[in-house]
Amino acid sequence: MTSQYSPDERAQGVSLGQRTYGLTPLQEGMLYQHFSLPGSGVDIEQVICTLTGPVDLGHLVHAWQEVADRHVALRGSFQRLTSGDFVQVFSESVRIGIREVDWRGMDDVEQQVRLAAFLTEDRMLGFDLGQAPLFRLACLRFGAARCVLVWTFHHLILDGRSLPIILDEVFSIHDALLDGRECPLPEPLDYRDFLTWLEGREPLPAVEAHWRDTMSGFEEVTRLATDRGAERTSAAVRPPESTYRTVRGRLDAEMTGALSDLARNVGVTFNTLVQGAWALLLGRYSGGRDVVFAVPRACRHSHVPGAEGVVGLFLNTLPLRIQMPPEARLGGW
Question: pTM of the predicted model, to two decimals?
Fold first, then answer.
């Protein structure tokens, strides 16, 4: 990807001379989802913080404004070029505000019902990707000394590693303002350094050869056939969406301990054990012994100094191929 475009290649809204940056691989995928599933709330993230004690809304706005001024990723937006490609740009400044909703005087049940409806509506609202900032804030007043802060953002601009950095700074600044003291913070690292490094990487023949070898012979998308009575094949037809639902479960301490012991006994991490179980499930329901699914990587161990402390989106997903020979025993497999 490249970051330099001639004037006639630029999208309307990207000013001449404004530096543009390419997208990370995961951002490309998220944009595809955004346009494939409009209004679905996909990749819209919400952080819900219950705050007790003194909360000054003016100080909270000031804190978020200062943090947005510090971290360029919070000022990012996405523009389409006349070629159809997207680039990301970063505004010099954005204006931060907080929507305030007062539910004091309502009982707990009514407050929870309204909160659930608010979160759903807020998520479905989505964002105009061409307009920074791609996050918004709401303060829901539940009582005299209790409120809920809802921070909604598009996953395009942030990954999970960024959240504690931002929240720690916001509440450190807010508390310092309440106490009338200074809040010294370290100089922030610039997310654009990572994008520049990423753009400068040339495709390596060895990398392409590795993935071609890894995926050699794999031709069918791993699909789930949920009809237990149907013949299972690797080319199972995906049933209608209405046949899927979400089931949540919780492992108790005894089961968690037993699984931890199993992982330790066969010499793998708990994460590897879970991925192995998922592979078995996919193989069982797809009717195959060769499955591929995506696994996330933080990608913070890059060549960008201090990447662990940078606010932005580094996350990527890679295909993990698992083959399950029928004669394999658990430990060796």
Answer: 0.81
